[in-house]
Write a structure and sequence with these properties.
With 155 residues, the protein is an alpha+beta fold. It contains 9 helices and 4 strands. The protein binds adenosine-3',5'-cyclic-monophosphate.
Length: 155
């Protein structure tokens, strides 16, 4: 099964939306494999957002991401990178579809509540940046038997 990295950004933490955000992924049928609160620093943010280096919003983005701790999580499921991105919604929250996290809770393009890995390569990289191997828990989720069919469970 696939794993993806999700961050509840400082605005989500400050607005008391951690539980509501986690609840969306739990209800979807995804498995939570790791969770912790972290204060991001320049060293990690320069790597995390290396693809945005040089963009006009880069400095503000880093300051925003350092403005309070974030909640970092690893979620697992069949093709869950795409599934999670669909739940998150597009970057500009005020244009995000109703029913998505950004569409339901946000208005901003920068303060958009949540980060989710956008590709398998990004997920692997982000997982390595934030988690040690032993922090990612491998356990049986009995609910999986009701969430997936047999072929899907073998993916
Ligand atoms: P995300 O897509 O999670 O990762 C990059 C972040 O940069 C994005 O969320 C926003 O928080 C921020 N971002 C992207 N585009 C802009 C923009 N045009 N202006 C300000 N912030 C942006």
């Amino acid at each position: 099964m696939e794993k993806t990295v999700v961050l509840v950004k400082p605005d989500g933490v400050q607005r008391g939306l951690i539980g509501a955000i986690i609840s969306r992924f739990e209800k979807k049928g995804l498995k939570l494999c790791a969770i912790k609160m972290v204060a991001l620093d320049d060293a990690i943010l320069d790597k995390w957002y290396a693809h945005h280096l040089g963009k006009p919003f880069f400095k503000d983005l880093k300051n925003f991401m350092k403005s309070s701790p974030v909640v970092a999580m690893v979620w697992e499921g069949v093709e869950c990178i795409e599934a999670v991105r669909l739940i998150v919604g597009i970057t500009k929250s005020r244009g995000a579809e109703a029913g998505t996290i950004r569409g339901d809770f946000g208005m901003s393009q920068s303060h958009n509540l949540i980060h989710a890995s956008d590709s398998p390569e990004a997920a692997k990289k982000e997982l390595r940046f934030l988690f040690k191997g032993k922090e990612i828990l491998d356990y049986e989720k009995s609910e999986y038997l009701h969430v997936y069919n047999i072929e899907e469970l073998e993916k």
